[in-house]
Amino acid sequence: MIKVAIVDDHALMRQGIKNVLNLNKNIQVIIEAANGKIFLDELNNEHLPDVVLLDIQMPEMDGYETLAVLQDHYPELKVIMLSMIQDEFIVNNLLLRGDAAFISKTTEAGEFLSTIDKVFEGIIPAPKRIRDFSEKSEDNAALITNKEMEFLKYCPTYLTYDQIAARMLVSPKTLDHYRISLFKKLKVQSRSELAGMAVKMGFGKTGF
Predict the structure, then answer these.
(1) CA angle, 57 as apex, 56 and 60 as ends, to 5°?
(2) Domains 2-136 and 146-200 equal at CATH topology level
(3) CA nearest neighbour of 91 among 53, 128, 40
(4) Which three-class secondary structure state does DSSP give residue 17?
(5) pLDDT of res. 86
(6) Domain spans of the chain?
(7) Of the four, 75, 80, 86, 170, which is 20 to 30 A from 131 by CA?
(8) Strands 51-55 and 78-83
């Protein structure tokens, strides 16, 4: 039996995913949560899920923040990130780092269930569109670090670089290294372009 947790801020989406999972009698949903904070509060060391279906864009605690906590405290849990947006660079970055698998919310039921089975077995499959991108990409080594991702999330806000550095508990000089690195990796030249990339990933104006 594969024990699954569903973490998504939309109740209808959680129910829809649950309906798909119910097609496989070998899958049992043991946790449903509307954001990462609620999910982490509900985790029980004696009754952990095998696979976590984790939405990327959620209020209060999003998928990236939740994934970072799981990696630190529950590294044995297998994670599949969910999103309506299938951005090649971002998904490819996740897959290449081995952080998590990815399923688009538009995926058909059969592929959805197949991906869960594979991830449970320790395989991280890539959607065909992402595999095609990976084969053509020459930037596979240019992976976004967790700190760079955190900085990227602050880019659409009104916070100054110094204020962002204070929030991240790093020096302005270190933050400048993150900025320059992201410019190179994402092939952009300004904060506004970084902000556009962050919004495309599902990050709104947070951190005021």
Answers:
(1) 115
(2) no
(3) 128
(4) helix
(5) 57
(6) 2-136, 146-200
(7) 75
(8) parallel
Q: Tell me the C-alpha to C-alpha distance, in Å, between residue 133 and each of 87, 95, 111.
A: 10, 12, 19
pLDDT given for residue 91 in this prediction: 62
SS3 27: strand
Amino acid sitting at position 60: E
* Residues shown for the chain: 208
> Which of left, alpha, beta for 207 (phi over 0: left; psi -120 to 50: alpha)?
left
Mean pLDDT over residues 42-68, rounded? 88
The answer to whether residues 175 and 152 touch, using CB atoms and an 8 Å cutoff, is no
Residue 140: predicted pLDDT:
40
Tell me the three state secondary structure of residue 158. coil
Is the CATH number of domain 146-200 3.40.462?
Answer: no
Q: Class for domain 2-136, per CATH?
A: alpha beta
Q: What is the pLDDT of residue 72?
A: 86
